[in-house]
Amino acid sequence: MKKILTLALTAAVSAGAFAQGFPSKPITIVVPFAAGGPTDTVARQLAEALRAPLGDATIVVENAAGAGGTIGASKVARATPDGHTLLVWHIGMAATAGLYRKLPYKPLEDFEYVGMINDVPMTLLGSPKVPANTYRDFEAYIRANGGKVNLAHAGLGSASHLCGLMWQSAMKLDKSLTAIAYRGTAPAMNDLIGGQVDLMCDQTTNTTSQIEAGRVKGYAVTTAKRLDSHKLLKDYPTLQEMGLKDFNLTIWHGLYAPKGTPADVTKKINDALKVALKDPKFIKGQEMLGAVVVTDNRVNPEGHKAFVADQITKLKTVIDAAGQYAD
Q: Signal peptide span per the entry (predicted)?
């Protein structure tokens, strides 16, 4: 009995000492997409905000793009579980569970959930060549032209892909739109601006500047309520207002560590995350992206994980209905 107690105390002391010594080297935040995209921007702003609460730690952002985000996620799942390798990923953490028949990791089992970062609204956009200036006219145009309309997205599992699927499902169109997959948001947006494709649904982090410059037409937002605090999008209707019952989609981002990361280390990172999310500079940077910093229970590991589990179920239903799967 004494031996068991001694071992338990030794383990507890070791774990505490490990946490006290963390970080002992540079921390790498892996982003499973190319540099310059919205998730990369969120990760770089977060890295800056995390440095001080983690004792002026050196934090670098590493881009590991490919396979809808699963390459970067796999890298973190296989990393040494000491808290020095972290993952920032969006709704893809939940979507890939339905999109991929064979994943190299289990979303709910192979990561320690640290906490949620933000919610990013989506905007439904049209090409300048689309002859509609309001959502009602846009919807009429879509229903009249059916399969002739092209819907751009940034690849399977991307925010724009998931939003497009959910919008089509809610619309109950007689004919599915022609989906055009791109290798990233930038080329998809470029073709939307140029009129090679007709519509796209994507994050405000990507769309706000394009709408403001008049390069694309904005029709509606995907949130449950209007974005009253957003200077450009505050007057845009929600899709719920336009008759799509219960339509509410945001592209959230979360922070993850490899499974087996010591609990004290995970707590230390979570504590630092909570400080970072209250950093005025970080909040301002997120507001400029059109993102809303998380303040509810999802900032805690248990709330974060419960939310993702619920999202996995909801998104799988939409993906199965569309029958669009990745290899």
A: 1-19
